[in-house]
Amino acid sequence: MSLSPHLFLLLLTIASLSPAAAAAAAVDCPLNFTVLRQFSQGSVVSRPDFSGECPYIRLGLRLVLSQYLKLTGSFLPPVNSSDSCWNSYQSVVNVTWPNFDIRSSCGFQTGWISHGCMNITTKSEFERIVPKSALDGVVAICNQSLENGSPCASCTTRLAIIQASFLTGPSIGNVTDCPAYPSIYTAAFVNQFGPTDLGTAKCLFSLNPPSENSRGKKRNTVVLVVLICCGVAAAAVAVAGGLFFWRKQGKVKKNDRIRRVETGLGSGLESISESTTLVKFTFDEIKRATRNFSRDNIIGRGGYGNVYKGVLSDDSEVALKRFKNCSAAGDAIFAHEVEVISSVRHVNLVALRGYCIATTPMEGHQRIIVCDLMKNGSLYDHLFGFSDKRLSWPIRQKIALGTARGLAYLHSGAQPAIIHRDIKASNILLDENFDPRVADFGLAKFTPEGMTHLSTRVAGTMGYVAPEYALYGQLTERSDVYSFGVVLLELLSGRKALGVRSHDSQPFLVTDWAWSLVREQKARDVIEEGMPELGSPEVVEKYVLIAVLCSHPQLYARPSMDQVVKMLETELSVPSIPERPIPLVADIDEIERSMSSSSSAQHSGSVGFHNFTLQNDHK
User: Do 350 and 402 sit in the same domain of this protein?
Assistant: First the structure.
């Protein structure tokens, strides 16, 4: 008996709807990725830093999953919706990064979006694992606006305790893992404002909306990666890279200017002299200033080359950094970097004085940067180096305030904002009056306004690097604030950022030690014994509290550098310091593994020298 065409199609349909086939059938994604658009800058970037965007992708996914958990009680979408969910996420990402494929660029497997932590899939399963008493503690702290630093720090500290205490099982994949679950749950069910609230998103998922003053005006995002300029003598990390400029307006004009420089190096270099006060030195002038690069004139050495003391024809003393292994191929980018850096001027920043580019038969291709000589060396020299004379309290106050002002200018006064990334005692130079100058922009980042930079390569020096940057590559201005807090503690206590205890040879962090004293209400015990001309107890204690607040391990507990300046120079009180999680010294091994590049060598010589050797975050 033959089947009619209609009956045959009906039988095929019934067969396709068997339980096994139905389970395998793909379904539409139930996740709402459009909520992420409020955190997008809305500008199309022709070539983003692909490797640096992957952590950002994970953070956005966590917010979306929290919203899904709030609506459905489930942490994860169905397995058979994995592909459609990645496609939905991709359509949102394409608005900002049209050439960025999430899965191939980040190495995410399709099924990972539906796999989580310890086989926890629902709200009830999470609540069975985490005791009610622990969740009640989260409710007491996290059910408030998390827009400001102190509430956010208290909340995230409590969540870290939950993760460390109860979520100790395996995570499947690396998209939604155990560390994310407390934040996802808290945003969904604990915080009354919900996951998409700007304060909640900022605190629990590190997502920021575009700033108001960034809308409708020119924006530039600059990733600086080049060999350039003055820093502390043996504190450089020489890494190669590239430079990307893009602007929403005037892009054609900008690209045209870049092309002109790349095709005509001479005109590009001449434009620097026309637009700045930089001096273009000849190679003969440099040789005379350094007595033909005499070894006696070397005041610093590093992987990038040597730093020399020099005397110019007008009898002014300068420091000169001579880069080695240069080629003419990078001169156009070098010229642009010199132009950008020369525009960053502040009384508490080391200023670029001039440069030299030359090719000689004997020496080969040369690039040299010239800056003023800092006759009192660096803060490291006076705290831990050659100086036998202890700095008096008034001088330490001057150094603290001047350094804070210089960093505040980098964060708020420079356009675009600059994140230093390697603040430490050896990068704080001192002139003849002991006025501080922040040096070594070698690891600086120019960042778009209001954006969190997520980097897959960490650069900096152990003991000074903020935990969120060392462990997760999350870089913001608050990362510099942490490093400033460490330097301030060194300045106040005379103790190094990272040391080893004499009695048990265990690592020792000045931040943990200072916090333990503050917690015991012994803040003044942080101050170095025998400090000359010690100030009033109230002022001394205030400086200690500022240092401990700045070096708090929770990012949003830290003030901005503008706020630090106000606290240091006025009677503005110091906010209460939130509790800290377990001592950071416990994470040292993991931090060391996380840091792909660090500059830990101590400098030698009486002058620091800006190192504008910038690090590329993607290879």
Answer: no
Q: Could you tell me if 375 and 386 lie in one domain?
A: no
Residue 1: inside a domain, yes or no?
Answer: no
Among 175, 209, 243, the domain boundary falls at: 209
- Average confidence (pLDDT) over 183-189: 95
Q: What is the CATH number of the domain that holds 314?
A: 3.30.200.20
Measured at the CA of 471, the angle between CA 83 and CA 240, to 5 degrees, comes to: 90
* Same-domain status, 329 and 454: no
Into how many domains does the chain fold?
3
Show the domain range for 183. 23-209
Residues 483 and 556 in one domain: yes
**Could you tell me if residue 363 is inside a domain?**
yes
pLDDT digits (tens, 9 = 90+) for 467-506: 887 776 777 899 999 999 999 999 999 999 987 776 666 7
pLDDT at 310: 94
Q: Taking 50 as the threshold, does the pLDDT of residue 156 lie above it?
A: yes
What element of type H or E holds 317? strand 317-323
Helix residue ranges per DSSP H, 192-264: 198-205, 251-263
pLDDT tens track for 47-71: 333 335 777 888 899 999 999 999 9
Look at residue 355 in the predicted model and tell me its pLDDT: 85
Rounded distance, CA 563 to CA 565, Å?
5
Catalytic positions, written as ranges: 422
CA dihedral over 118, 119, 122, 127, signed as positive or negative: negative
Q: State which of 71-75, 248-252, 423-427 shows the largest mean pLDDT.
A: 71-75
Residue 570: CATH number of its domain: 1.10.510.10
**What 8-state DSSP symbol labels residue 416?**
S
Is residue 65 situated within a structural domain? yes
Tokens of 373: 């000589």
Residue 114, pLDDT above cutoff 80 = yes
Phi/psi at 310 (5° precision): -140, 160
Own/partner long-range contacts of 239-243 (Cβ < 8 Å, ≥24 apart)? 239/459, 239/597, 239/613, 239/614, 239/615, 239/616, 240/616, 241/614, 241/615, 241/616, 242/333, 242/616, 243/333, 243/336, 243/337
CA–CA distance, 452 with 445 (Å, rounded to integer):
11
- pLDDT over 70 at 28, yes or no: yes
Q: Give the C-alpha separation, 123 to 145, whole Å.
A: 23
Residue 19 has pLDDT above 50, yes or no: no
Residue 11 CA to residue 501 CA, distance in Å, equals: 78
Longest dimension (CA), the chain: 111
Are residues 402 and 335 part of one domain? no
Place of tokens 């012994």: 522
Task: Look at residue 438 and tell me whether its pLDDT is greater than 60.
Answer: yes
pTM over 0.70: no
